[in-house]
Amino acid sequence: MSQETTDPTEAPTGGFQLPRSVIKWVAAGLVLTSAVVIIISLYSGVKFSDFESIGYLTFGLAAATTVAKLLVQIVRFRVITVGLAGDPKMDLSGLALTRVSSEFISISTPTSSTGVFIRTAWLSRKGVTGGKALWIGYFELLIEIYVGAGIGIVAGAYAFLKGAVVLGSTIAVISLVLIAGYTIIFIIPARRAIKVPHFVFTIAKYLVGGPRATALYLHAVVGSLNFSVSARAILTKGKLPVALKAVVLTIALNVLDGAGLWFVLNAAGLKIDLLSATIAANGVEIIAQLPVSIGGAGLTELTMQGYLIAIYGFSSWAAIVVWRVAAYQVLLATTGIVFLFFVLKSTKHAEKPREVEHQKDAKGFLQDGG
Fold first, then answer.
1. Per-residue model confidence as pLDDT tens digits over 11-48
2. Partner of 242 at 20 to 30 A CA spacing, among 1, 141, 275, 369?
3. Which residues contact 192 (CB under 8 A, 6 or more apart)?
4. Beta-strand (E) ranges in 116-257?
5. Cα–Cα nearest to 9, from 214, 223, 219, 210
């Protein structure tokens, strides 16, 4: 760990360093999610011919919807950043790389909100105050939760009416808990000034390293008032267009989720429309929000199987495995590659100031005559 002293009120400017704790979580996520797919394939009696019957084209289309989601996420993050940062001349270089990289952290660690800290660190480096930077990242997550939970309530009600009382009630209850929980977290800072909880940056320490997390935490404490002012800004009419754009883009993301499932289920023999597939995919993802496994491994597959049987009387582990690989493993691989470039680029940027400093020291040494 570096012994250099830094101004704790300044946002981190060094290269990105991935702590060992996060590396362990990512490794565990990769192993666990892949193992679940393999175990389900083996114990459910799925044969390779079952996958072939669904078709490579179907898998390709489902995987394409997953990649398309990343593009929509980039657009949404840009819309929110430009609309809420308050700086029309803000440097947006690296935005796409940061957003996709943060998605890798979100889906490969136990809680999906961890990616917010990567985006917060990037915003801080771009000059956004710590409190506002955290709030912008949280706002994107809030919109995602509200829209997803809203569709989840519809999925729960639909399942309930179809006779799947336990499944429908579970989806609806989890959706309501998510809405209530995130509303409480959001309304409090919108009503009065609060201090940024220390545990938030204890988590960040595992994501961006001790020195960077400490600097970011102190910066956020200094800007806690700004955090509250920024939170209240969402309640003004001036920010309504930003919120509406974010909601529309989030709905588009949910439709893409449904499209991937729609392609696979139709190829597997279940004639389902896009709307029903979207409701099913997002209803299952609501249950996968429970932090009992990394990336919802196991829970997602089992819930989807239960949903299809209860609502449609349809069972196909091959279809679930193909859908899951296209929706998750493809996303994990794509964002993982981008994250690697993100780390390498950040490391190179951190090395450049050191090289300049070394050159200055060498020049001074030669001028002094050795």
1. 344 445 555 555 665 666 667 667 777 777 767 677 77
2. 275
3. 228
4. none
5. 219
Q: Which two tokens stand for residue 324?
A: 């899951």
Alpha helices in 223-329 (DSSP H): 224-232, 240-268, 274-288, 299-312, 317-324
C-alpha to C-alpha distance for 244 and 247, rounded to whole angstroms: 5
Total residue length of the chain: 370
d(CA 223, CA 23): 30
Type of residue found at 234: I
Confidence (pTM): 0.78
Quick check: 80 and 242 in contact, CB under 8 A?
Answer: yes
pLDDT digits (tens, 9 = 90+) for 289-315: 887 777 777 888 889 999 999 999 999
Q: What is d(CA 350, CA 337) in angstroms, rounded to the nearest whole number?
A: 20
Residue carrying the six token digits 């994107």: 140
User: Greater confidence, 108 or 205?
Assistant: 108
CA distance 318 to 53: 9
Listed as own residue / partner, the contacts of 22-28 with beta carbons closer than 8 Å and 24 or more positions apart are 22/105, 22/109, 22/206, 22/207, 25/108, 25/109, 25/110, 25/294, 26/104, 26/105, 26/108, 26/109, 28/294
Show the tokens assigned to 282. Answer: 């997002």
Is the torsion defined by CA of 183, 188, 191, 194 positive or negative? negative
Structure tokens at 177: 């808990």
d(CA 203, CA 192): 24
Mean of all residue pLDDT scores within the chain: 79
Side chain identity at 303, as an amino acid letter?
T
Separation CA 129–CA 161 (nearest Å): 48
Give tens-digit pLDDT for 167-226: 999 999 999 999 988 888 776 666 666 565 656 656 666 666 666 666 666 665 655 666
